[in-house]
Amino acid sequence: MRLGLIGTGRIGAFHAATLRSLAGVDRVTVADADAGRARALAASLELECAGGIEELYAAGLDGVVITAATSAHATLIHQALDHEVPVFCEKPVAPDVPGTVAVVERAASGTVPVQIGFQRRFDAGYLAARQALRSGELGWVHTLRACTSDMVPPPASYVPTSGGLFRDCGIHDFDILRWVTGREVVSVFAAGANKGEDFFAAGDDVDTCAALLRFDDDTLATATATRYNGAGYDVRLEVCGSRDTRIVGLDDRAPLPSAEPGRPGPHPTGPDQAGAQGTGPGANAVAPGPAGERGTPYATFLERFHDAYVAELAAFVDVAAGRAANPCPAAEALEALYVAEACDTSRRTGLPVAVSDVRSRRAPGAGVTGSSR
After folding, report:
1. How many other C-beta atoms lie within 10 A of the C-beta of residue 339?
2. Calpha distance 125→175 (Å, rounded)
């Protein structure tokens, strides 16, 4: 199989190395607006390098992976569809609802698959929680608690183009809550705060947020996110039912030091050790300590979800080859974006927001919806 990759930054480099290692992948060709960066990655991984997008497609592709800047995602997806090449694109589909809707409608009108990168769907813990809920082991669910907590904030230059904390980070929780439960969010009430660097407020964003979600079966969920979690990179989901509970992300490297006597306390790492890009002690995985001890807490998303990212791309190879159904079509990403948009509106207005109100503002066409849940 011949695959292309567009965008050779941090996640692009990681995906390129993964694609190179997958069974059945014979050739990986990379391209980037920064030609020098693309050549350097190709040389380091012994991959091919294209001088531009058209040259990439002219080489003949069976699938393409898009890891370029957010602002380019929609255009690059449309280009892949123009060439009738199956496409995997990291979230988001587009920076806004209209751009996302346009991709969803284009994909729905054809047969070329567009898979969006919500890697938590491939994480073993989320898969197990979903199975436990849907098998009836947990009884009926009364509460869900989701969190996404970065260890250190992103560079100031990232914030104005990130889409904001709900769209950039919270959207992963909104997608996985829908996927685990099989239910739709009907209303939200959200708030945000800034207690860190001034560049968040200057970029019309917040560094910490919280949302209360109500689902269509009256289940309640909370979703929180922050850019300043000094204990480590913390992503968890608690699924609490009338019979039992499951907690995703509660492993030996979860950054959860106990305040209880006799239990493992704080680990000697934090934002000062992690560095501006989360590259400190936690950046290299270590084996968990002896029973009762904690391993080095996760510092970055690439550590926490390494295996999920690999499984996600392996799934895309099967989708592109026609061996499997699309596990995360663009319509799923649109539904998560609607929730993120509702949360951001609620944060700004201080009022509850119905997701249907956000959905009614969609453009450019009629209501294309779909679910792989």
Report:
1. 31
2. 15
Q: Rounded distance, CA 250 to CA 237, Å? A: 9
Tokens 């009762």 sit on residue: 292
pLDDT of residue 265: 72
pLDDT score at 208: 98
Structure-token match 């499997």, residue found: 324
Neighbours of 272 (CB within 10 A): 9
Q: What is the pLDDT of residues 68-120, one digit of tens each?
A: 999 999 999 999 999 999 999 999 999 999 999 999 999 999 999 999 999 99
Give the pLDDT mean for 310-334.
98
User: What is the C-alpha to C-alpha distance for residues 239 and 246, in angstroms, rounded to an integer?
Assistant: 5
> Within the chain, how many helices (H) and strands (E) appear?
15, 13
Question: Does the predicted model carry a pTM greater than 0.85?
Answer: yes
Cβ pair 168, 159 in contact under 8 A:
no
Q: Any idea what DSSP says for residue 329?
A: B
Report the first-to-last Cα separation within the chain, whole angstroms: 28
If one counts every other C-beta atom within 10 angstroms of the C-beta of residue 237, the result is 26
Cβ proximity of 44 and 18 under 8 Å: no
Sign for the pseudo-dihedral over CA of 85, 90, 95, 96: positive
Contact 34, 8 (CB under 8 A): yes
Q: How far is CA 303 from CA 47, 140, 284, 307, in A?
A: 24, 33, 8, 9
Beta-bridge partner residues of 237? 146, 248
- Burial bucket for residue 135 (CB in 10 Å: 0-12, 13-18, 19+): exposed
The answer to whether the beta carbons of residues 258 and 264 sit under 8 Å apart is yes
Find where tokens 């813990």 sit: 125
pLDDT digits (tens, 9 = 90+) for 8-55: 999 999 999 999 999 999 999 999 999 999 999 999 999 999 999 999
pLDDT of residue 360: 83
Rounded to 5, what percent of the chain is helix, strand, coil? 40, 20, 40
Span 354-370, average pLDDT: 72
Calpha distance 299→255 (Å, rounded): 9
